[in-house]
């Protein structure tokens, strides 16, 4: 095992507004709200879904490859360097500008979907 699913992050134009919808839909509560980033948690206090502001957001359109879905997965790991070696061996690519010593790093999967490796310091 490299890590565990930590949260799913959804791009959107207004994180507070979209988070309000999912709070009601999924019976979740706000764990964090910076205005540009909102995290919803479950009853146990674990993060479940997060929303991040994206400038010039273009809504996805179902079955339209020109307007794909916009979200990424955060994977909790204990050591970024060890996990990085493992995901690179699986075919991931470290994205430019995301080589952080602690906290998080951003990669893309073998077909280009972004995902983050994060440590407790980055959560």
From TrEMBL:
InterPro entries in the record: Glyas_Bleomycin-R_OHBP_Dase, Glyoxalase_6
Top-level taxon of origin: Bacteria
SUPFAM superfamilies linked: Glyoxalase/Bleomycin resistance protein/Dihydroxybiphenyl dioxygenase
Domain Glyoxalase-like: 8-118
Protein name: VOC family protein
Pfam families to which the protein is assigned, alphabetical: Glyoxalase_6
Transmembrane stretches, start-end: none
């Amino acid at each position: 095992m490299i890590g565990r699913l930590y949260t799913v992050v959804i791009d959107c134009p207004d994180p507070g507004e979209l988070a309000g919808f999912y709070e009601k839909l999924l019976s979740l509560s706000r764990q964090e709200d910076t205005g540009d980033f909102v995290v919803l948690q479950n009853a146990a206090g674990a993060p479940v879904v997060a929303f991040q502001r994206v400038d010039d957001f273009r809504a996805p359109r179902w079955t339209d490859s020109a307007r794909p879905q916009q979200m990424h997965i955060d994977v909790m790991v204990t050591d970024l360097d060890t996990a990085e070696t493992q995901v690179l061996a699986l075919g991931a690519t470290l994205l430019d500008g995301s080589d952080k010593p602690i906290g998080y790093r951003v990669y893309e999967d073998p077909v280009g979907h972004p995902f983050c490796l994060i440590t407790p310091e980055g959560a």
